[in-house]
Amino acid sequence: MFTLATFGASIIAGVAGSILGLGGGIIVIPVLTLLMGVDIRYAIGASIVSVIATSSGAAAAYVREHLANMRVAMFLELGTTTGALSGAFLAGIIGGRALYIIFSLVLAYSAFAMFRKRHGEAGMNVPADRLADRLGMHSEYFDEQAQVVVPYRVTHTGIGLVLMYVAGVVSGLLGIGSGSLKVPAMDLAMRLPIKVSSATSNFMIGVTAAASAGVYFARGDIDPFIAAPVAAGVLVGATAGSRVLGKLTNKAIRTAFVFVLAWICIEMMWKGVHG
Amino acid sequence: MSDAQRMMEEKDKTVHQVELVISVLLRVGVVVSLLVVVAGTVLSFVHHPGYLSNGKDLGALTKPGAAAPHSIAEVASGVRQWRGQDVVVAGLLLLIATPVMRVAVSIVAFLVEKDKLFALITAGVLALLLLSFFLGKAGG
Known about the structure:
The complex is a heterodimer of chains A (275) and B (140). Chain A has 275 residues and is mainly alpha-helical. Chain A has helices spanning 2-20, 25-35, 40-64, 70-90, 96-116, 130-134, 157-174, 178-189, 194-218, 224-244, 250-274; strands spanning 139-143, 148-152.
């Protein structure tokens, strides 16, 4: 029963995670701890596995379809991995509760900014960025829903790298927020189309999570009886979800993302205030 | 067709090949680890039918103190004895290794593409990843 219920919930987490560019931890952790009564330690271990499963399962499709921008991803991974390493060192120094509150405020701002942007996509009309030119990041993708090829230009690459570093620190410290900070950073600062932001975030989160997975494994936090149904369910869900992303409208993805951001924002604020 | 256009098309083609290679690698990693995880789960249910019928046994395994296997040596010896839970963990480790492999293969792909800058960037990411594994081991 436990195995089947966890498997089912993980399929949903995989679908949602692959469409929104998140790891699915926001679904997996509460389901495991609140509904299944699993210890938080093992829930976090399973959630790390779920992030890697979402990423690898969905990115296989996104890379082939040219929806994920590999050059943007590879470059930004420099920031996220460095950040994740710093986060592991800072873990003892910075207090958790204050961090939850700051994280929550950042998410609130991102949700608000993304909500305001819900009607338009930047595309080609962005400020020039020499670093993006130099790194050959500008690209195009085929929008399945609109049935057109959408060319786009990348901007503010430097700011993007700094934001990815911050996202890496936060996920290293709190074990969450890998995708919820990456997507807004690519969407709001680097002005990538929302589908490209989500697909590229999906591609990247696996690497950030793999960096911390080693630590969780060595600590014995990855319990096979919990992580197995989660991994299997998320893989099935992410493979299905990766077929859906292209068919949705930008507005629908953006709206769903704003809701999820607002939800995480409330959850984090609660944790920060109540401990 | 002008030379410049032809060059652009050539470049697009190699870029596309790199993406295909990475896509196939990710898919293989995902399918293989999924098969191993499922095989391990079936194996442990066959060895311990009690996990299926009575939630208490499984419950005991998912509570703190259940001591999940946590070293590669431990998992390897368990797999040799066909212990279900170690087979599951081996599958999970394959899953964790998939993004790392992806980064390693990308370095080669960028080199084939004669894109030294990106080969260097990707090598940097791999170095940071490996560093985090070693530091994690020391700290954990």
